[in-house]
Amino acid sequence: MEAKAFSGSRGLLYTSPQRPKSMPAWTSIRAAATKKNSTQVKLLTRVEQLKLLTKAEKAGLLSAAEKSGLSLSAIEKLGLLSKAEEFGVLSAATDPGTPGALLTLSFGLLLLGPLSVFLVPEDYPWEVVVQAVVAAVSVVGGSAAFGASNFVSNLQK
Predict the structure, then answer these.
(1) Are strands 11-14 and 5-8 parallel, antiparallel or unpaired?
(2) I need a labelling partner for 88 at 20 to 30 A (CA). Which of 3, 25, 37, 44 fits?
């Protein structure tokens, strides 16, 4: 019978009495656990390492949000945290494919603006308005997606 192992906070731990003879019980094997744990994103640890809360405080984001009516009690009343869980915001932030998907979205949106200006004719004033609106939304959305891609990528490092 092989030694049974499970992953714990210290890595891969052996619990079976038939473990390798050179290893005492509950020995951590860091080499085996490093490969497994390298794919896990520790979001709160990364937020702490980047000092995001300190930067938000120094930039005055918290007071600006409170002045606009977005306090912790307002977040609680609106149920924003439960909505974030429903929409999978935290799981998306830890998903390794999210930065690439956001980057692809940003490039698509940034290409949509000039493409719409090129393809939509300018025969009537409303067509010019459509061009301007699509171009503006594309630039703003593409820039936001690009920034979000960079932010999520930095959180996952």
Answers:
(1) antiparallel
(2) 37
Higher per-residue confidence, 141 vs 64 = 141
From the list 137, 138, 42, the residue with the least C-alpha distance to 93 is: 42
Q: State the Cα–Cα distance between residues 1 and 17, nearest whole angstrom.
A: 10
Say if residue 126's pLDDT is above 90: yes
Rounded-to-integer distance, Cα 65 and Cα 86, Å? 23
Task: Give which of 91, 86, 84 is closest to 40, Cα–Cα.
Answer: 91
Mean pLDDT on 66-82: 84
For the chain, what's the residue count?
157
Tokens representing residue 44 in the block:
């709160």
